[in-house]
Amino acid sequence: MEQVLDLINNYLGLLFILLCLGLILFFYFSDRNRPKISLREIQAFRHIRREVDLAVEAGKRLHISLGRGNINDLQGGAAFIGLTILDRSARAASNSDLPPMVSSGDGVLTILSQDTLQFTYHSLATEQRYNPTNARLTGLTSMAYAAGCMPIIHDEHISANIFAGHLGTEIALLTEAGERSRSLTVAGTDSIHAQAVLFATSDEPLLGEELYAAGAYLGAGLAHSASLRMQDILRWVLVVAILIGAIIKLIGILP
Amino acid sequence: MTDILCPLCGKPNPSELDECMYCHAPLKASGFLAPSDQEGDESPFLTPLDTSAEAETSTVKSEPGSPLERAIPDWLKNTEEKFLEGVESKPEQPTSEEISAQIESLLNPPVIPENVVEPANDDDWLASLLAEAGGEPLSLGPEEEQLGGPAEASDVSITEPFIEKPSDEEDALPTQPAEKPDWLTGLEAASMIKLSGEITPGESIYAEANVEPEAEEIPSPIEIPDWIGQADVMESSPSQKEPEPPIAAAELPGWLEALRPEEATAATEPVEDLSAADIVATGPLVGLRGVISARPSAIKARKPPTYSIKLRVTDEQHARVEMMEALLADEQKPKPIPSQPILTSRNIFRLVVAAVLILPIVWMIITNSQRIPTPQPGSVPGVVDFTEQIQSLQEGVPVLMAFDYEPGFSGEMNLAVSTLINQLMLKNVYMTLVTTTPSGPALAESIIKSVATMEDELGSYSYYTDLGYIPGGTLGLLGLANSPQAVLPYSLDGINVWATAPMNSISIINDFSAVIVMTNDPDIARSWIEQVSPVLNDDGTPLLIVTSSQAEPLIRPYYEANPSQVKGMVAGLAGGLAYGRIVGNIQQNGVWDAYSIGITASSLIILVGSIIGVVLKMPASDKKKES
Amino acid sequence: MKKILPTSNAIIAVISGSLVLLGYFFPGVFGNIQSILIGWAIILAAFALFLGIFNLAIVHWKKAKTTGPSSIYSLVLLISLFLTIIIVSLSGPTGSFSLWIFNTFQVPVEISLLAVLAVVLVFSGARLLTRRPKWQTVLFLVIVLVVLLGSAPLFLLGEVAPLIALRGWLAQVPAVAGARGLLLGVALGTVATGLRILIGVDRPYGG
Fold this sequence. Notes:
The structure holds three protein chains of three kinds.
Chain A: H1 2-30, H2 43-58, E1 61-67, H3 76-92, E2 101-104, H4 107-123, E3 135-137, H5 142-155, E4 158-166, H6 171-180, E5 184-189, H7 192-201, E6 204-206, H8 214-217, H9 222-251
Helix pairs in contact in A: 1-9, 3-4, 5-6, 6-7
Chain B: E1 3-5, E2 12-14, H1 49-60, H2 67-71, H3 74-89, H4 96-107, H5 124-134, H6 142-147, H7 150-158, H8 168-171, H9 182-190, H10 226-240, H11 254-259, H12 315-332, H13 345-367, H14 383-391, E3 398-404, H15 410-426, E4 430-435, H16 440-454, E5 464-469, H17 474-482, H18 484-487, E6 515-519, H19 522-536, E7 543-547, H20 552-560, E8 568-571, H21 572-583, H22 591-626
Parallel strand pairs in B: 3-4, 3-6, 4-5, 6-7, 7-8
Antiparallel strand pairs in B: 1-2
Helix pairs in contact in B: 1-3, 5-7, 7-10, 9-10, 13-22, 14-21, 15-16, 15-21, 17-19, 19-20
Chain C: H1 4-25, H2 27-65, H3 71-91, H4 96-131, H5 135-149, H6 161-172, H7 174-198
Helix pairs in contact in C: 1-2, 2-3, 3-4, 5-6, 6-7
């Protein structure tokens, strides 16, 4: 029994990952021939789409901040979502007078954001719009990162700020800067503390795992919709598993 | 010097010019003269021959480039030249009797011979034309003669609508054929064609008017085309021949008869008296009366007048137009963004909040207030276990210390960290410093040196090593846990500390006596716990956490778990003070009182601000709903 | 070439990620290759940090050359950067001059920013009910007040035991429960994001 439990304990993670992969692939191939799945309304993404259009019309630019998460850490997932949002926003705002400005607090994220911008403009045949200085490293610590982002918000004709990545409580300084410069702020982070701050300071906060649904809501591809459906299913599986485990523990079956 | 009026624009031009100097229309080809030339009521028909000759020669010698000159065929020019040569030799002026006779002949219709059947009333116009054509045409001035020439007679016959029906008086006129002028005789003589049955030359209308043709010299014979000579013969023959028998009335076809109007109205007399009308001297209508004068005085062919297209705008309309133009111009101008005033209600509120928060805190620190009792160690979870774990460390053992908190959190964390370092220094523990944040090495060095200088008996503590920054985040921690020497082979000073004691006994992370993680970020704490504690728990190496109060709720479950992954924790300012209280290292400096008053002030600000906002906004929202 | 490079990037990413993942579950088989790849990733991360600083310098160099209100700050940043590099290179990362720069400039500035953050949070809390007049906001503010008042003895009032107990319960039961739920959702999202990259559908590396 213990060996079985050890085996399960050792390979439970792998089984879980394989289950996730299978669901993603299943939904990816099955949704190809289906009409677009309807998603519940998340106001933040609607505002992102609207702000992109407004920025293009007004001749201003977007500010997309990817946070300071290291892709080698758990925060890497939020950082990759930020890169997805960057890609979609850059495509939507490709005909804007001013290209979007990208800030990050990690060296790897800076390089990846430059690469994303370059690839986006290359796919739109507008390579001449790419400027490597539009993606910049603002600081290595949390306060330095916030201090480096605030001048961008004030001085670069920003119409809307999109914060997507790993950001801490320093995001309050950035949302305050956005409010002073009369620009909309849409923010999502994987940090629990920062989400509490965002609820109080941001115009449109993305709470919980709403940030990870950005790809599906912004039309990043069928894989994003498939993974979103996988998350919904597994969330319920986890809820049921926790409840069952709590009940079993309460009953006394488990020690 | 007489001026010539331009037939197109009506402006006077010098007579020597061939083209108008204003509109470049030909002047002399049309043969129109300025009204000043006609002041003596002299018709151009009656101009002196010498002047006319001069004009003719000048006209003949005119520039070949004028358009009207170019339009005149060469044969006609030759005819004119020959005629003018003959005329120049003996210019004679017509006598007054001849002039009056000519005028009379023009006024009175030709007398129809008795043997001539009068045409029907309906054909009177045709008969009159034919009669006219049989008469001698009027003598023309030299200008008109150049252009008119042989064609004038036919033109006269065709374009003479106002020839009256011969009256009784006219019938009484002798029917002798009028004598033809010499020039016409000359033309006829030069003609090679003699038609049979043709009208004998010499018959002309002058025969009816008893006007003897001028005894003019017959001009030198000119070679003229046959048809012109034939026409002359035909025209002149009626004047020289005996009165011909009247032309039999033509038998009109039935359809033409049907077209005849029922009421045949007799030819009316001219509406106006043409006796005083000018006689056309030049051009194709030479010899006719009552022709609409082509003179500039009658028909001024000039440039059409330009009418102003300027609208008649009133002042009010003008003002509205200006307003519209200003509106449109403003649309193109970028409107400058109004500068925000510095002192707004929001900024004032911010300043008030900052003042209410900062001033009491500063006051407490300045006065070193110690009114608020420090927290009890038992009341702060994790402090006691933490203290026990530190106290259980033996002297000289290596301890891994991770300085993973931000410099900004130094104010909260330094109290607990400095107490901890102090305790470790007193135990002479070998501190091995690592960090996963770029500012960690400097932070670690800074606090160790500051603690060392605070404790005079320690002096400069050097029983530690700083291995520096671990890149790669979680991956780096995993590598550190499995093989710290591979991840951090040298210290910041470049020394291979793994070769010397006590580090030479370290191969994996659980060889350390304790792992103490100091961080304000719960995610970093979780990374250390999840990556390192599975390796540590095997040999009981404790994992101790020093964290901030914001991360304490997330770290505490790891501490309270069974089996716990965190053996002890010190969280926030309260934990630091409690830990200091246990070890007897109380350094408050008014911090706890300042923290207390800050908490109180913050709570009050939030509460009052929320109430005020609700109270102020509710009436505004009600007004909105009402509106 | 344009099509080969993205494909090769995707292949490298997929294979590397798969090997590292398998190394967690089968350390005996893939442990070595996992360690090598992790070592390479750590080295690349260090160089990426250097490249990020270089990018920062270029950005502010361009800003300093332009005439504007913020060009002077870029100039100050560049001067500070180069001076710090020179001093730390000569003095060492833990030398006295280096620590002087750290203790004199970086620590006070970051502490000041944190103090400003505290003021900003209090100000936002005071205006929150005005901005979002919902019942969730009221609940949020009530919990904030309870946690604040239970964190430390109140000035002139001392410790309020019920508040402290309530604060302890709130911090350990609902807050942690909610945090765990959020973290589970975040973990699911992270797993999904990672799997999209592992199967090559999502290519943040510009492929």
